[in-house]
Amino acid sequence: MPSQAKHSGRCAAKKKSPMFAVCTVLFAAAAVMIGVSLLILFGPDRPFDVGDRQSKSPVNVSYSVPHTERGVLAVRPICQYPDWPTGCEIVSAAIVLDFNGIDVSVATLVDDYLPQSLDFYYPNGNIFAMRRGPDLRKVFVGDPRSENSYGCFAPVIVQLMRDHLSAIGQDPSRVRETTGTSLDDLCRDYIDKGIPVIVWATRDMMEVRPGATWRLDDGTEFTFPTGEHCLVLIGYTETTFTFADPEKTAYSSYPRDTVLARFADLGKQSVVLIPEDS
Description:
The chain is of the alpha+beta class. The protein has helices spanning 2-6, 18-42, 88-99, 106-113, 154-167, 183-189, 256-265; strands spanning 116-117, 140-141, 175-177, 197-202, 209-215, 221-226, 228-236, 240-244, 252-255, 270-273. The model is unreliable at 1-16, 34-51 and 54-69 (pLDDT under 50).
């Protein structure tokens, strides 16, 4: 009797049919497929993280440019909208070339001289591995005509400008990468001598947030700095720096400490074009 009492309060286990087992397997397989699809479409390693560098409409606001004892270089603003929503680097190059009397369209710079790549892939097709992708120091990652692109860093713009100077019979060595030089030294060595400087910072000098991450072909892990932006330094005071910003139709000034921080966040990247008579 004790053995019967042991089970008297329990329901007897039901034997599951073969059809139930088949349905369970099919359901699990469908769940895996759905999960993989969501990972590809919305996961952290999708080809583009919309918002990393997604452009806004142009900000048609004239920031107050304070008086500076050294003056503001009279560059001609060129707006990147609507044609180049993520092409601030190439537009900045066009601004500096124009300042030096070189008449070239942004379209020509993009179509004839800008290397572009969207070569994102997963090693051996393994979508759970970190994806591989292009190097912003070697190519423009994406297309400057597209809102969903990343951009490029200083070496790409140096080569683009040198290639164009060579094509028009001018000395390409006039284009110099000055990455690593402090803003104070850039102002002393170039702004004070009437030479504008292409610099990398962020849009509206907002704080950098980590964006999409991928591995470069050399094995280096790269995280895109959300908000990355390129603009042209044209003046300064003791408390501000002034820029020709491709996103705006007027000069913009920002607090000195904020600009120093954003410039450092982007690796203190800068490029200059030395005038012919220098």
